[in-house]
Design brief:
This protein is mostly helical and 382 residues long. It is built from 20 helices and no strands. The model has no long low-confidence stretch (mean pLDDT 90).
Length: 382
């Protein structure tokens, strides 16, 4: 009986965890608190942090289907979920869901928003060169720098395509953490580089966008972008396919499935599997701290570049563009657009910038996908 009790005790997690595992369990609980109590990106932070919790209590949940002797065996549950991340299936499906929920009307009504969305991608390229200077190789730097686009699925997609799966956990956690902290990180930068007069600028009401324009937009964008940069097809193609479902008006069932049931199933699988890559042995390293710092640098540079380009457009249009909408180009949809509205309303409560900011916001989604495709083309990863 004593031997049985002893064996049972040693099968508990208490006898198998390291101090690092306990640290990661605390981090997971902190993220759960932020997601539930503070409502920071709860749809993604809850599954990610719970995956983190599971793998640090029971590492076998991510076990590969080959034992120490090279014999095939049953792999861990989340290992199979994670393979869908590595193969870029889940991030692409999320893009289809995002497309089915996105209205590109503000972007179509004001095509200049494309330039603001493109300018905000400066943070990605700035972080890339800083990462190279910090000792990361080219593909590692590219995978890390995409955090600056504030687009979690694209970050996971590129890390998988470039073979940086060991960095996927820290990259995903950093990307989604900064996405959730948009209302905290962006306003100080926006206020520092704009004047009160600029923040009070009221923009003209956007023109009406016809149904035909909305139908043609995803088709034309897919043809143009994918012909120029074919590596963007998985992300841009799925984004535009989902949007075409929405705008064509004849496949309501597909629209509902892509934007609801399928979208949330994919979020659960992607979130828990990415969270499960953050075991203590992989996450508690100096590299992780560097990734977190680089992510913040990329995000701050992207916000700054968007605002500064907004100021340039304000000057060129003789005060018709409010520079605040440039910050929305980082693509954290729709939170970044809401932040532009909030900061503008603080300067003038009668100022409504939300719809204007949605143009750069959705342009930023396309811009981040193009940046990812560019890195894939550079490194020959199709």
């Amino acid at each position: 009986m004593g031997e049985i009790v002893n064996n049972l005790l040693h099968q508990t997690a208490f006898f198998n965890l390291t101090w690092g595992n306990y640290v990661m369990i605390l981090v997971a609980c902190l993220l759960l608190f932020c997601a539930i109590k503070l409502q920071y990106e709860p749809l993604l932070l809850i599954p990610i942090s719970f995956g983190m919790l599971l793998v640090n209590i029971y590492p076998g949940i991510m076990a590969e289907p080959i034992d120490e002797n090279g014999v095939e065996t049953a792999g861990g549950l989340l290992y199979y979920f994670f393979k869908l991340d590595e193969w870029a299936i889940l991030p692409s499906l999320i893009f289809m869901g995002v497309g089915a929920m996105t209205d590109f009307g503000p972007l179509i009504a004001n095509p200049m928003s494309f330039f603001l969305g493109a300018a905000a991608q400066f943070g990605i390229y700035a972080a890339y060169f800083i990462a190279l200077a910090m000792g990361f190789n080219g593909m590692e730097a590219a995978a890390i720098s995409i955090i600056g686009g504030a687009d979690g699925p694209t970050s996971i997609f590129l890390a998988g395509k470039l073979g940086q799966t060991s960095l996927m956990g820290p990259i995903a956690v950093a990307a989604y953490s900064y996405m959730s902290l948009v209302p905290i990180i962006q306003p100080p930068i926006m206020k520092l580089f704009t004047t009160e007069k600029e923040r009070k600028i009221k923009m003209d009401q956007l023109r009406h966008v016809s149904k035909l324009e909305k139908i043609l937009f995803p088709i034309i964008v897919t043809i143009v972008i994918c012909m120029i940069l074919p590596t963007t097809a998985p992300l841009v193609g799925m984004l535009m396919l989902g949007n075409l479902f929405k705008e064509c008006g004849v496949v309501r069932q597909l629209t509902d499935t892509a934007s609801n049931a399928l979208m949330y199933i994919v979020v659960i699988l992607l979130g828990t599997s990415v969270g499960a890559t953050t075991s203590a042995a992989k996450f508690l390293q100096v590299t992780t701290l560097k990734i977190v710092v680089l992510g913040l640098v990329a995000f701050a540079f992207g916000t700054w570049a968007g605002v500064m380009f907004g100021k340039l457009m304000c000057f060129l249009t003789h005060g018709k563009i409010n520079p605040l909408i440039g910050s929305a180009g980082v693509s954290a949809v729709p939170m970044a657009a809401r932040v532009s509205q909030k900061v503008g309303a603080e300067a003038d409560p009668t100022n409504f910038l939300l719809m204007h900011a949605m143009g750069p916001n959705v342009a930023g989604v396309i811009g981040t996908a193009v940046a990812a495709g560019t890195f894939m083309a550079i490194f020959g990863k199709f």
